[in-house]
Amino acid sequence: MFLTSIEPSLSRRGLSKLRKRLAALTMTGMVILLFSFFFIQKTLYDSAIDQARAQMMAITYHLSAVLMQNSTIDLQRVIDENPDLSVGVLDTDRNQINGTIPPHLVDDLFDEIDKQKAYRGSLLCMHGNTVMLMAYSILPQLDRIVVTYIPRHILLGNWREAIMLHASLFLIVLVIMAGLSVWLWQRLKRQHLRAADLAEHFNDSENTLSDCGCAILSWSSKNPSGILTSRLNWPEILGLEFGDVKPTADAFLSRLGAASRAQLRSPLIDNEWQDNRIGTMVDILTSAGQTQRFYLMAQRRQEEDSETITVLLLEIAPQQELCHPFETYLHHTPEPAIAVDMEGILQGLSPALAELVGKAVYDLIGKPVEFLFLPEDRETIRTSFINRQSGDTQERELVLRISDQRGETRWLAWHAIGPFEGMTFSSARDVTQFVENANKLRDTLDQLKRTNEDLEQFAYVASHDLQQPLRMVASYTQLLKRRYGGSLDQEADEYIDYAVDGAKRMHKLISHLLEYAKTGSNDDEMAELDCNQVLNEAQADLKAIIVQEQATITHNDLPVINGDRISLSRLFQNLLSNAIKYRRPGVPPHIDIHAMRDPDMPGFWRISVRDNGIGIHPEHAHRIFRLFQRLHKDEFSGTGLGLSLCRKIAEQHGGRIWLDTTRPLTDPGATFVFTLRGKP
C-alpha cells in the first residue's frame, strides 16, 4: 500500500542540481591540480638552479685554490672528467691568461663583478642560443680571475627527468579523476531517468487509486493542524478542485461528519491511541454538501524522532460488501495478510501471501481460515476465534506454521486487529529463522542438561562404588601396620605408613567428590531461612578447630533468603575452615562476615568473608574455583574440592562467588564474596 507520496519534480530538480555541482567540483579539482603541478615544478626549478649555482661556485673555488698553489698549471686538465665544463683565467685588465672565454661573456662577467663588488659569484648569460651558467673567483694576490662556465641545460638534466615523472603522475591522477567524474555523471544521469520513470509510475498509480476511490493523507502528530506531508488523491475523490480545500489536516478533519469526528477525536485530534492502527466507517462531506460513506484506516508510525499519522480512505458504494475495502487494502500491502469474518471464513488475502504459499491459496477463499495452516496449529486458530466471538478483544500475537509453495514449513507471527463491523484483519511477519534458532538453542540446552545429569550421576556412582574396595584397602593396611609395625625394618614401616596415609587421603577425596556430586540435586528443599542461624550451625560444627586455633568470628546482621539449609551451611563451613587452615604462623585467625544489598543486581544480597591469613595472589583468582586445584600442595593437606563446592552452592542459589582482587597485597589475608537471592 502506498503510505507515502513523493513530488517527482523535486527529485528531478535535485538530481539536476547535483549533476551541475559535480561538474563544477570536477572542474575546480582539475584547476587546483594543474595549479599545484605548475607551482611544484616552479619550486623544483628554482631549487635546481640554486643547486647548480652552488655546485659551479664550489668547482671554481676549488680551481682557484689549485691555481694559488701552482700558478702555471693548466686548469682545464684538472677537470678533464667533465668535458662540458670550460675554464679560463683572466687578469684584471680582461686579458686571457689561460683557456678560451668568448669576449661577450667576458663583458658580461666584468659587468657582474662591477655590480656585485664580490670576490666570488655566479651569473646567467647567453652564448648564441644557449644559456650559460658562469661562476668566477677573484685572486687579488695573483691578479687573476678564475672563470668556469657550462650550458645550463646540462645541469638541469635531473630536473627534466623529474618533471617528466611528475607530469606522468599528474596525468594519471587527472585521468582517474576524469573517469570517476564521468562514471558519477552517468550514474546520476541514469538516476535522473529513473526518477522521471518513477514519476510517471506514481502518476499511473495515483490515477489507478483515484479510479478505485482511494486517497492517502499523512501529517505530523505534533502539529495536527499543519500542512499534509502526503495528500494522494485528496480532495480529488470528493470531486473538488485542489484549491477548494487547503492541504492541511484541519481541512480534512473539518470534512468529517459530526458523529465520525466525535468517534475519531481521541486518536486523530487528541493523539490518544489505544492501538497504533485503527479502522472504521466514516461519513465525509462532499462539495455538494452531501455525506458520503468511506472506510477509514489510520496508523501511527514512529520514525526516529518524528511521529506521523497516516490515513487511508476507501470509497464505499451502497452495493459493495464490507470485505471490499479490505480487498483493496490487501492488494497493496507488502506483507502476508488475510481478512477473516467472525465465523472464521477467509474472505481475502494479500499477493505477498499468495507468493509465499502459492497460487492455490486462492482456492481457500470462502473456506475456514484454519485450512491455511498446518493441522497441528488449527486448534489454536479455532480457540482464538472462539475467544474473539466471546468478546475478548485483547491483542496478541500468534506464531503459526504454514507450508510454502516448495513444501517447506514457515513460521509466521500473526497480528490481528478488529473486529471492525464483523471483519478481522491480520498481517504476518516471517519468524522462521528466529524459531529455528530458538529450537536449536533449546535442544542444545536440553542436551547440556542431560550431559550434566549424566556426569553428576557418574560421579555419584563412581564415588559410592569406590568406597567399599577403598575401605578394604584401608582396613587391611591398618591391620598390617598394627600386626607387623616395628617387627620389620624401618623402610618397611615407612612404606606401610605411606599406604595408610594414601588410603586415608583417598577416602577423604572420594567423600568430598561424593558430596560435590550430591550438591544441587535437591532443588525442592529450598525454604525460607535466616543466614544468621545457618552461620551459627556452621560455627558449631567447627567449634573444636575454632577453640584450638583461638579463632574469632564477627559478623553483622545477615539476611533472610530462600535456599537450602544444608548446602548453605556447607558453604559457610568451607570458607571458615579455609580461613582457619591458611592462617599466618603465630597470628590468631580473625574472620569478619559482612552482608549488604548487591548494588549491581536488585533483589540480591552480597556477603563477604574476610580473613587475616596468608592470602591469595590475584593471578590465581579464577584457578582456585576449579576442581582439584590447590595452591599449597606441600604445606597444607586437602583435596582441592572445597572452593569448587562453594561455587556450585552459590550458583545453585542463583548467585556467584569470587575472590576480591581489589584488596591490596600489603594487607594480608583473603576476601571471598558471594551473592544470594533475597527473600521474594
Q: How would you characterize the overall build of this protein?
A:
- The N terminus is likely disordered.
- The protein has a 5-stranded antiparallel beta sheet with strand order 2-1-5-4-3. It has a 5-stranded antiparallel beta sheet with strand order 7-6-10-9-8.
- The longest helix is centred in the first third of the chain and has 62 residues.
- It is of the alpha+beta class and 680 residues long.
- It comes from Thalassospira xiamenensis.
- One of its GO terms (molecular function) is kinase activity.
- Keywords: Coiled coil, Kinase, Membrane, Phosphoprotein, Transferase, Transmembrane, Transmembrane helix.
Task: Write a brief caption for the model.
This protein has 680 residues and is of the alpha+beta class. Helix content is 46%, strand content 22%.
What key phrases describe this protein's structure?
single chain; 680 residues; alpha+beta; five-stranded antiparallel β-sheet; 22 strands; flat; transferase; His_kinase_dom; HisK_dim/P_sf; PAS-like_dom_sf; transmembrane
